[in-house]
């Protein structure tokens, strides 16, 4: 496979015929079973039938599946071909600037139509909804990446899409809304007066910045109220992690082309899906004895893996979703309004949480200004302006590369550049103007939130 590349290559491109034919399901290989979701009112385990009002059949089967490989349907692969396989790139200039013996590779997901990894799941979810005869999808979006991705995918499969966008991001990122509308979707700032969940928040805090938890409550409430409408979630759930593994499966083939094998795999973690997508195929090999470290990187302001508890919790603020066993800050936790909207979520994918419990990965956190410094350095060397979320991965890569230098180790680092930052330039402007600050973490607020975790007898 390496006949078209040389040791001098910078870019490793897979021909279209190497687009993976199956997603990889880590649940098949985890040392223990995935804890089932539980009913939000009774705390009893829930099966696929209980979730049928929210999700289509294909998605529900995947959510509970323990099959190791699940075929990517032909119509989904057909759409993936618009931008996949995505490139693997060696960050040679960054290596040189850091004067590190480490080799740094990144998988670039910013080449998708929406500019991030999120269409990998949006396209699959739109397909399964169309298969079930669904006409309308509701969803939430933080920074706007997921809303744009579902708007794009829904339109291709003939679905109308209604997106509840966290208010602070709606105000910060007007072009995200414009992109959703360009793809034919409707975008509403959350909390909104359209739902009981939104009205309750607005009554208590009219100036609410909103949060992903609130926006999820609104989208779920609307999906449950109509038979032709279902809900789509852009991260956290098992099926979303599954769809994203197309990233890691491609990366493995491309690393082979580069004659390289990662010692370290790094991704930023919000709900956990892009990290899962790159790292789960490597965890499969790790479970078979391969030596590889997987590192999830989160913001210090929303430290789900580094400070959260492993517990059953709601996925939303309105306590409408099933309870999931995950690392969580508590569904009442309100993270400060940072520029990485996509990382402002109180919970973590149950599968990523299990990977953490089983010692398959590590986690660390950084402040946003140090991440932006790393992102600006990266842009000036490698040309790509990273999404604020992705900058967290880059900061960790930088630290690992400098550790390699200090220790004289020529390790190979692979990270996921989950998206570009072209719609996030206000954040860069704030950073250059010295207006970006690091909010000290409020441990008392976290404790108060954790004290209200639902009590679930397991
Ligand atoms: C949404 C988003 C994230 C965070 O979501 P995960 O599910 O943790 O991947 C990270 N990067 C980008 C560019 C995003 O849009």
UniProtKB/TrEMBL annotation:
<dbReference type="GO" id="GO:0005737">
    <property type="term" value="C:cytoplasm"/>
</dbReference>
<keyword id="KW-0456">Lyase</keyword>
<keyword id="KW-0663">Pyridoxal phosphate</keyword>
<keyword id="KW-0057">Aromatic amino acid biosynthesis</keyword>
<dbReference type="Pfam" id="PF00291">
    <property type="entry name" value="PALP"/>
</dbReference>
<dbReference type="GO" id="GO:0030170">
    <property type="term" value="F:pyridoxal phosphate binding"/>
</dbReference>
<dbReference type="InterPro" id="IPR006316">
    <property type="entry name" value="Trp_synth_b-like"/>
</dbReference>
<comment type="pathway">
    <text>Amino-acid biosynthesis; L-tryptophan biosynthesis; L-tryptophan from chorismate: step 5/5.</text>
</comment>
<protein>
    <recommendedName>
        <fullName>Tryptophan synthase beta chain</fullName>
        <ecNumber>4.2.1.20</ecNumber>
    </recommendedName>
</protein>
<dbReference type="InterPro" id="IPR001926">
    <property type="entry name" value="TrpB-like_PALP"/>
</dbReference>
<comment type="function">
    <text>The beta subunit is responsible for the synthesis of L-tryptophan from indole and L-serine.</text>
</comment>
<dbReference type="InterPro" id="IPR023026">
    <property type="entry name" value="Trp_synth_beta/beta-like"/>
</dbReference>
<comment type="similarity">
    <text>Belongs to the TrpB family.</text>
</comment>
<dbReference type="GO" id="GO:0004834">
    <property type="term" value="F:tryptophan synthase activity"/>
</dbReference>
<dbReference type="InterPro" id="IPR006654">
    <property type="entry name" value="Trp_synth_beta"/>
</dbReference>
<keyword id="KW-0028">Amino-acid biosynthesis</keyword>
<dbReference type="GO" id="GO:0052684">
    <property type="term" value="F:L-serine hydro-lyase (adding indole, L-tryptophan-forming) activity"/>
</dbReference>
<feature type="modified residue" description="N6-(pyridoxal phosphate)lysine">
    <location>
        <position position="118"/>
    </location>
</feature>
<dbReference type="InterPro" id="IPR036052">
    <property type="entry name" value="TrpB-like_PALP_sf"/>
</dbReference>
<comment type="subunit">
    <text>Tetramer of two alpha and two beta chains.</text>
</comment>
<dbReference type="InterPro" id="IPR006653">
    <property type="entry name" value="Trp_synth_b_CS"/>
</dbReference>
<keyword id="KW-0822">Tryptophan biosynthesis</keyword>
<feature type="domain" description="Tryptophan synthase beta chain-like PALP">
    <location>
        <begin position="82"/>
        <end position="419"/>
    </location>
</feature>
């Amino acid at each position: 496979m390496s006949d078209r590349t040389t040791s001098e290559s910078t870019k490793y491109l897979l021909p279209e015929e190497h687009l993976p034919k199956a997603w990889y399901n880590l649940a098949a290989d985890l040392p223990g079973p995935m804890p089932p979701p539980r009913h939000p009112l009774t705390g009893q385990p829930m099966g696929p039938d209980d979730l049928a009002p929210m999700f289509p059949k294909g998605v529900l089967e995947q959510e509970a599946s323990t099959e190791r490989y699940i075929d990517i349907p032909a119509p989904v692969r057909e759409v993936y071909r618009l931008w996949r396989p995505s490139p693997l790139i060696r960050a040679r200039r960054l290596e040189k600037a850091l004067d590190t013996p480490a080799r740094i590779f990144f998988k670039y997901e910013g080449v998708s139509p929406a500019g991030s990894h999120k269409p990998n799941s949006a396209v699959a979810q739109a397909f399964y909804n169309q298969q079930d005869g669904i006409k309308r999808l509701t969803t939430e979006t933080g920074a706007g990446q997921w809303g744009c991705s579902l708007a794009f995918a829904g339109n291709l499969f003939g679905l109308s899409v209604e997106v509840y966008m966290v208010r602070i991001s709606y105000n910060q990122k007007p072009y995200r809304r414009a992109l959703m509308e360009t793809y034919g979707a409707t975008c509403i700032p959350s909390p909104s007066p359209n739902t009981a969940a939104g009205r309750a928040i607005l009554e208590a805090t009219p100036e609410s910045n909103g949060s992903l938890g609130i926006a999820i409550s609104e989208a779920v409430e609307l999906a449950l109220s109509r038979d032709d409408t279902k809900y789509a979630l852009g991260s956290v759930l098992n099926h979303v992690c599954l769809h994203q593994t197309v990233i890691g499966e491609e990366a493995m083939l491309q690393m082979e082309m580069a004659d390289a094998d990662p010692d370290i795999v790094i991704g930023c973690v919000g709900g956990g899906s892009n990290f899962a997508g790159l790292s789960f195929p490597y965890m499969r090999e790790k479970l078979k004895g391969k030596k590889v470290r997987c590192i999830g990187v989160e913001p210090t302001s929303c430290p789900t893996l580094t400070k959260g508890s492993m517990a059953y919790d709601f996925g939303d603020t309105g306590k409408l979703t099933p309870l999931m066993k995950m690392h969580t800050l508590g569904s009442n936790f309100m993270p400060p309004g940072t520029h990485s909207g996509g990382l402002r979520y109180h919970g973590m994918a149950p599968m990523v949480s299990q990977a953490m419990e089983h010692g398959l990965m590590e986690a660390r956190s950084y402040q946003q200004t140090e991440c932006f410094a790393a992102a600006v350095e990266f842009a000036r060397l490698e040309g790509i302006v990273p999404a604020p979320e992705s900058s967290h991965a880059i900061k960790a890569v930088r630290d690992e590369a400098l550790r390699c230098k200090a220790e004289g180790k020529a390790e190979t680092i692979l990270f996921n550049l989950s998206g570009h930052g072209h719609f996030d330039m206000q954040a860069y402007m704030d950073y250059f103007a010295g207006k970006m600050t690091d909010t000290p973490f409020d441990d008392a607020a976290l404790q108060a939130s954790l004290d209200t975790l639902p009590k679930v007898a397991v």
